Amino acid sequence: MNSNLNDNLSDFDTSIMQRVLELASQGTSTTQPNPRVACIIVNGKEIVGEGVHHMAGEPHAERLAIEQAGELARGGTAFVNLEPCCHQGRTPPCTDGLVDAGISRVVAAMRDPNPLVEGGGFELLTDAGIDVEYGLLENEARWLNRGFVSRMVRGRPWVALKTGATLDGRTAAYDGESKWITSPEARIAVQELRANSSAVVTGIGTVMADDPNMNVRIDGAERQPYRVVLDSHLQLPIDAQIIGTDQKLIVFTLSQDLDRVSALTEAGVEVVQLNDTSSGRINLHDVMAELSNWQCNEVLLEAGQTLSGAFMEAGLIDELTVFYAGSVLGDKAQSMFQFESPLSFAERFDFHIRSAEMVGPDVCLTAINQASWQTLVTKD
Ligand SMILES: NC(=O)c1ccc[n+]([C@@H]2O[C@H](COP(=O)([O-])OP(=O)(O)OC[C@H]3O[C@@H](n4cnc5c(N)ncnc54)[C@H](OP(=O)(O)O)[C@@H]3O)[C@@H](O)[C@H]2O)c1
């Protein structure tokens, strides 16, 4: 936690910050790689300007709120869920805009962990005579931008595993059939999870078994996540459905088969050849570092038991979203996580259950890896 809040913060201040967070969440599926940000300008007790950042390259929330407020911004308070930027990017620094507009107080939910900002925005505002307070609804703000914060403080995206499972935690039948464990309602909810992610990752096992497309099929979707396949031996068939769209497909491999690489590259696939490992399998931390370089904030893992198990074992699953259907497949069916090494009770992975809700006839349960969350709230 990082805060310099004054004791005199009012319920009104908190309610405005709650609205800021609601507005910022409107950018959940569009702002990546940028964070989700909104700004509200208040003069007295009146809201005089609101702005929501929509997409990278488009105006920042503060600029939009200032524009809407016009002269009424003078002497007002700007509430924003992230420290205003102080660097020239594709758009000019927001700190300049706030100073020029005559804002007298800025209340922010959190510092920006981006090394280009990291307190520099607050410093600039303070130097210009503006009162700056930060730390209001900080945890909520960090949660909203957990992918961005993760990329900034850990150098890797936030990884959420989504899986459809039976009541006994099975993700496919013994013969590999898994269509469809869950209901149409659950599958619609999955479309939203994909839309909110920078990349959707799967293993070659799932591609071979299901020939999935893994795109977002939501009317009016403004952005498609990258699709990513982990395929150590470059087995991906050239006629796989996942290749046949305009959306970027990245295949990570250990293979040095240049003919296969060029055939896939010609088909529009981005092939990333990683260094070989002693296990003969792709190093998942290398994949995460690469995806961070591709500016991926949130990654959705939609894989079978092998790759999901490897991610869990590597400590790379930050969030779990499991859609449980009212069926049972028994212990010969495929599990959610396959571990190659025995895991004793003491070595279990601990998650905190965050929510459980009905989605059609299924239950959607989300759980957070406490260790991951701690790194996001304690580091800046
Ligand atoms: N219920 C659900 O939500 C759901 C979701 C997805 C899939 N499924 C089902 O899961 C089944 C497929 O499961 P699966 O386990 O065969 O496939 P998978 O987990 O999707 O992919 C496994 C493959 O990924 C590759 N891989 C690359 N790097 C790896 C690493 N570091 N660690 C582990 N694997 C790595 C391996 O092949 P290489 O060594 O050749 O690279 C491995 O065999 C299908 O029946 C599918 O229907 C169910």
Give your account of this protein's structure.
With 380 residues, the chain is α/β, with parallel strands linked by helices. The protein has two domains: 11-144, Cytidine Deaminase, domain 2 (3-Layer(aba) Sandwich), CATH 3.40.140.10; 154-378, Dihydrofolate Reductase, subunit A (3-Layer(aba) Sandwich). It is 29% helix and 21% strand. The chain has twelve helices and 14 strands. It has helices spanning 11-24, 61-69, 94-100, 120-127, 138-144, 146-154, 184-195, 204-210, 258-266, 284-293, 305-313, 370-378, and strands at residues 38-43, 46-52, 77-80, 105-108, 131-134, 158-165, 199-203, 226-230, 249-253, 270-273, 298-301, 319-324, 351-359, 362-369. Strands 10-9-8-7-11-6-12-14-13 form a nine-stranded mixed β-sheet. It has a five-stranded mixed β-sheet with strand order 2-1-3-4-5, sandwiched between helices. β9, α9 and β10 form a beta-alpha-beta unit. α3 runs parallel beside α4 (120-127). The protein is elongated, with a radius of gyration of 23 Å. It starts with 10 loop residues before the first helix and ends with a helix. The mean pLDDT is 94. The site of NADP nicotinamide-adenine-dinucleotide phosphate (NAP) has 30 residues, from β6, β7, α8 and α11. NADP nicotinamide-adenine-dinucleotide phosphate binds at residues 163-164, 171-172, 176, 178, 181, 202-206, 209-210, 230-233, 235, 281-282, 284, 302-307, 310, 334.
